[in-house]
Amino acid sequence: DIVMTQSPLSLAVTPGEPASISCRSSQSLLNSNGYNYLNWYLQKPGQSPHLLIYLGSNRASGVPARFSGSGSGTDFTLKISSVEAEDVGVYYCMQALQSPPSFGPGTKVDIK
Amino acid sequence: QVQLVQSGAEVKKPGASVKVSCKASGYPFINYSLVWVRQAPGQGLEWMGISNPNGGTSYAQKWQGRVTMTRDTSTRTVYMDMNSLRSEDTAVYYCARVKRNLGTDFTFEYWGQGTLVTVSS
Q: Is B101 left (phi over 0), alpha (psi -120 to 50) or beta?
């Protein structure tokens, strides 16, 4: 099974400042079709998770442009260009390449 | 719009079984797989298994023999049945719909509101 790790596990950010979360997989998530099967989800307090980024760098429908995903192979990054108060929650990366799909431990983002 | 509405919270005794439902609307039910994801209190997300449009299922090895996922096309509902419950099964159980309607897909685009299952004597 593919193991996902994230860093940092918690992050406090000043509104308006950028934030970055790293995700690493134990195996390459780059498929022969050229896509990286890495997704990002945000779980806001008291809510269900929702999809932010899929295939490494594609924003899901309705996701603000301040969120971006990058990386390839085993190393990936989620960036928030200018954090807003509504961005608080736990961010999870997840590999979608093979069964069983697996999540990282999550990164908790708070506002300073 | 796509909606996944799950059944209400359950309280069960150790050794009992629980059946959680997930009713889908707003899209062609027969075209998409649905998955179940578990979240223990204060913990992360854990994929449990998938119910495919043709009725086929695949479970994480951890749940083999204890979890059964079924779907009723007539009511657009998917069910997750877990037996031999223990206290460690206390968690919120989410259903989610995959993004693509063809082939195997593990991108979970739409989520239900979650169902809290509490196992306590």
A: alpha
Taking only the tens place, the pLDDT of each residue in B5-19 is: 999 999 999 999 999
- B27 and A CB contact within 8 Å: no
Q: What is the pLDDT of residues A31-70, one digit of tens each?
A: 999 999 999 999 999 999 999 999 999 999 999 999 999 9
CA distance A14 to chain B (A): 25
Contacts for B69 with CB less than 8 Å, ≥ 6 apart: B36, B49, B50, B51, B57, B59, B78, B79, B80, B81
Beta-bridge mates of residue B14: none
With an 8 Å Cβ cutoff, is B83 touching chain A? Answer: no
Give the chain B residue whose CA is nearest to the CA of A95. Answer: B106
- Please name the member of B58, B107, B111 whose beta carbon is closest to the beta carbon of A48: B111
- Render A13-33 in DSSP notation, one character per residue: E-TTS-EEEEEEESS--B-TT
Q: Do B111 and A103 touch (CB under 8 A)?
A: no
A106 interface with B at CB cutoff 8 Å: yes
Give the C-alpha separation, B45 to B48, whole Å: 10
B104 contacts chain A (CB < 8 A): yes
pLDDT, tens only, A76-100: 999 999 999 999 999 999 999 999 9
